[in-house]
Amino acid sequence: MSDANKNKFEISGKEQVKVAVIPSAGFGTRVLPASKAISKELFPVFDRPSIHYTVLECVKSGIKKVILVLSRRKMDILRYFERDEELEKFLSEKGKLHLLSSLEVFKNIEIDYVIQEEQKGLGDAILCAKDKVRGENFAVLLPDDIFFSYDGKPAILHLIDKFLERRPKVGVVLLQRVKKKDVEKYGIISFSKRVGNVVIISGVVEKPSVESAPSNFAVVGRYVFSPEIFKYIEMEEHDERGEIQLAGAIGKASCSEFSGDSVLGVIVRGKWLDIGSPEGYVKANLFVMKNKHKVLEKL
Question: Band of the pLDDT at 297, cuts 50, 70, 90?
């Protein structure tokens, strides 16, 4: 990686979070029938697949290994990260070096994968990666969420830094304030204390009604966890859809026997793009197209 592409916000030392899990096994029902032809994680946002932004966020944050959680019908995602020597040779011979460099941004990160045999929820997807995480602290990034921090620092690196600074027992999650009428779309936190942009989470309610929502802070698809989270995921019961939800595990952890800050929420100022629905996908493309020079130059 060239000096120009080196991580601007370098972190060092043994405690660096080096592993990220990216759950990508879902059916993509909200964007059918398009997701039957191509995995939704490969839908382009402007000129690159949405998962490109997710993995590049890992690269920029000093993460060395990405574990993709896939289903067997979504191996096209893995192929995107494989080298294409014929294409690279063609671009080199034609002098299209700017395009060649766009294919080389992932050459210094290891891409691994694990199969989720049945799609049983986000908690189960993360549990599938447990053996490959190997007892390390790790990040989780959901490719449905693209996040551009206003300060240019990757959202997951904001969480990594706060995780290493505050040492929560279980983890740190990214939060964004949403309109009260939109709380029914997200996991919404309750909290016992807020200091600046950090809150101590006391519970998580998945898609509450407007009347019952404990706050209007939504959990965005970025997390940093210690291995303790697996214990709470394993405690989770299957819900009425047969799924194991991460929100429930985070809720249990925040109410656990640990005193103090078991789970922290960090509010990061930035633009959150939810591309999991057709409407959100179109809005994301329009935003990146309109702001391409400001946004893409940071990638």
Answer: low
**What average pLDDT does range 39-49 have in this prediction?**
95
At residue 6, the pLDDT reads 44
> Domain for residue 266, yes or no?
yes
The DSSP call for residue 82 is S
Q: For residue 104, name the pLDDT band (cuts at 50, 70, 90).
A: confident
**Which tens digit of pLDDT belongs to each residue from 132-144?**
999 999 999 999 9
Does some domain include residue 139? yes
Cβ–Cβ < 8 Å for 162, 198: yes
User: If you write DSSP's letter for every residue of 200-242 in order, what string do you get?
Assistant: EEEEEEES--TTT-S-SEEEEEEEEE-THHHHHHHHPPP-TTS
Q: If you average pLDDT over every residue of the chain, what do you get?
A: 90
Amino acid letter at 17? Answer: V
Answer left, alpha or beta for residue 121, where phi above 0 means left and psi between -120 and 50 means alpha: left
CATH number, domain at 138?
3.90.550.10
Total domains, the chain: 1
In which domain, by residue range, is 212 found? 15-296
Question: In this structure, is residue 146 part of a structural domain?
Answer: yes
The helix-helix angle for 155-166 and 50-60 (nearest 10°) equals: 40
